[in-house]
Amino acid sequence: MKAIGIKTSLPISEAESFIAFETSTPTPERHDLLVRVKAVSVNPVDYKVRKNSAVDLDAPKILGWDAVGIVEAVGDQVSLFAPGDEVYYAGDITRPGSNAEFQLVDERIVGKKPTSLSNAEAAAMPLTSLTAWEAIFERLGIQRQKGEGQSILIIGGAGGVGSIAIQMLKEMTQLEVIATASRDETRDWCLQLGADQVANHHNLVEAVRDIGRRNVDYILNFADTDGHWEAMAELIKPQGRICSIVENKNELNMRAIRSKSVSFSWELMFTRAMYQTEDMVEQHHILNSVADLLDQEIIKPTLNKTLIGMTVENFKEAHRILESGKAIGKVVIVFDEGGKDS
Predict the structure, then answer these.
(1) Confidence band of 303 (pLDDT split at 50, 70, 90)
(2) C-alpha closest to that of 257 among 246, 244, 245
(3) Could you tell me which residues are beta bridge partners of residue 263?
(4) pLDDT tens digit sequence for 63-102
(5) CB–CB of 200/177 below 8 Å?
(6) Which residues contact 326 (CB under 8 A, 6 or more apart)?
(7) What is the C-alpha separation between 168 and 264, in angstroms, rounded?
(8) Under a CB-based contact definition with an 8 Å cutoff, are residues 177 and 166 in contact?
(9) Rounded to an integer, what distance in angstroms lies between the CA atom of residue 183 and that of residue 68?
């Protein structure tokens, strides 16, 4: 099968930052599905792994943690899917990724593809939807259709995770949603998705206070944990909750939130698959719930740019866009033009 991968971590401008190669099609065992991949989307985790994980590898490493495709074959313990099923998923960071013609993925972290979406639209959704759902409902403990009179601050509102988190919060809770954005186009994007207020993250405390909120009940940080830590500590209410998905480089001053009895948690979408947790199948249920919300048009896909063709140049272009820090919504690569509208 054809695949796109890396052998050495290189800047995206380098000729061999991505390489195309041929490798054997894997065989599904136990809970595995063998999926023929139709489209993938690119997330910050892709370029972070590309830049930091490889030094003259013997065999290329296949990246990619978002995909839509068709089940070709199944392992002997599979019960949730059958060959021919259309699926979407974010995968497992400890296994070969989706930037290939075929991929093995555990059925327990796979959902049914939303029937109303194109392959490109569906490929944009798994990783961000799982991350947003787990952060909102599991890490922060927010209850559905609750939260009247309370507020939540989303740092990084126009990114992939922020774009779906805004919608989930507006459609599934009663919280006031404040999103951060600094450019006209990102501000407009957040408002179109349903944000009640938009604050400029360059002077976050002042911006939130300017829109009439001294403190917020919850904070979702989808941007720079180190850079926003002091602002988050200042803005969070006593006994509030903060969740971040962005790894810190410096030691976080937990004393800044101690006197407020603030709860802080991390969200990593890959945790369940990495550790084979007892509730691993919960991601299957979340993806199916998100598919239903999409098919009912309660939330809408966050696709913003589509590239056609499984080529090295398309993967380079997608990574360039993400690394610029100016991406809005999601970037998707459709492996064949016929899959664009299917």
Answers:
(1) very high
(2) 244
(3) 241
(4) 999 999 999 999 999 999 999 999 999 999 999 999 999 9
(5) no
(6) 183
(7) 21
(8) yes
(9) 31
Considering only CA atoms, give the Rg of the chain. 20
Structure token pair of residue 72: 């070709």
Residue 337's pLDDT is 53
Domains assigned to the chain: 2-125+271-339 (3.90.180.10), 130-266 (3.40.50.720)
Contact 29, 35 (CB under 8 A): no
Taking Cα atoms as reference points, which of 206, 153, 213 lies closest to residue 180? 153
Residue 340 has pLDDT above 50, yes or no: no
Distance separating alpha carbons of residues 25 and 245, to the nearest angstrom:
33
Angstrom distance (rounded) from CA 192 to CA 182: 15
Token pair, residue 203, equals 């002077």
Count Cβ atoms within 10 A of the Cβ of residue 15 and give its class: 0-12 exposed, 13-18 middle, 19 or more buried: exposed
Instruction: Give the global pTM.
Output: 0.95
Query: How do residues 122-137 score in pLDDT, each as one tens digit?
Result: 999 999 999 999 999 9
State residue 20 phi and psi, 5-degree precision. -95, 140
Give me 22's structure tokens. 């041929």
Q: What is the DSSP annotation of 290-309?
A: HHHHHHTTSS---EEEEEES
Angle among Cα 233, 235, 241 to the nearest 5 degrees reads 70
Is residue 191 packed enough to be buried (19+ CB in 10 Å), middle (13-18) or exposed (0-12)? middle
Nearest to 241 by CA among 153, 145, 115: 153
